[in-house]
Design goal:
The complex is a heterodimer of chains A (about 90) and B (about 140). Chain A is mainly α and about 90 residues long. Chain A has helices at about 1-30, 35-60, 65-90. Chain B has helices at about 10-35, 40-45, 50-70, 80-105. The chains are: A mainly alpha (about 90), B mainly alpha (about 140). The interface between A and B is large, with 57 and 65 residues.
């Protein structure tokens, strides 16, 4: 019983996050400006992290949380670096 | 560490599922806003749904499920929640400031001028046009 409930909820959650990733990809391809693309990339990083979190619950393995944490850290660094690049035109001054 | 999910009690499955679906639904609404809202400064607000209660709901759901399945507190998912809620304001503030700087340096009249130059007479604050000009 609990497995049925859990797998249905995980199916719904993973589908919703996948659709959210598609919308972010559409915004990243569409633009219209560079900051929109960076914002869409940041949202896509968060969606990828949540997707991995849901996958970790589905497999019942806590190994995937470390990977999700690494994706979160990389997304933060990538967005900060790209915002700095948009402002200055260079990353390391 | 792996847990057996078939030994999960029903109450934990229901509670965890509610939080998982809540988090994923809020993420979807945030991405919908990112795709649909008209200008960059409004779009900047939409993904915060995913990073506040979207991530929070999914982390809470997985904490409930793993705690009930492993029969001991499994709390290390909360690291993800703390990290995401701490870093998102920083990234979005930097991105918004970079966008304001870029718009100002291009002389975009829809962006308010920087502090100290409000007295300039050559800066005209116009009403925003309905459609965004095409720029790259």
């Amino acid at each position: 019983m609990s497995l049925v409930i859990l797998s249905a909820a995980l199916w719904a959650a993973q589908t919703a996050v996948a659709v959210a990733m598609c919308l972010c990809a559409w915004r990243m391809a569409r633009g219209p400006r560079a900051q929109d693309r960076v914002l869409a990339l940041d949202a896509m990083y968060v969606c990828a992290m949540l997707q991995l979190l849901a996958f970790g619950v589905r497999t019942g393995n806590t190994l995937y949380f470390e990977a999700a944490l690494v994706i979160g850290v990389l997304g933060f660094i990538a967005t900060v670096t790209l915002a700095k690049f948009l402002m200055r035109g260079e990353v390391i001054e | 560490m792996s847990v057996d999910l078939s030994a999960l009690p029903v109450w934990a499955a229901i509670a965890g599922s509610v939080f998982l679906v809540l988090g994923a639904g809020l993420t979807l609404i945030g991405a919908l806003g990112l795709a649909r809202l008209p200008s960059f400064y409004t779009r900047l607000h939409a993904p915060t749904l995913a990073t506040s209660w979207g991530a929070g709901g999914m982390v809470t759901g997985s904490m409930i499920i793993f705690t009930a399945a492993a029969a001991r507190p499994v709390l290390h998912e909360i690291l993800i929640g703390i990290f995401i809620t701490t870093t998102t304001p920083i990234t979005l503030m930097m991105l918004g400031r970079a966008a304001v700087y870029r718009d100002r340096s291009e002389g975009d009249a829809r962006v308010p001028p920087a502090l100290g130059v409000q007295e300039r007479e050559d800066v005209q604050l116009a009403m925003p046009p309905t459609s965004e000009p095409e720029k790259t």
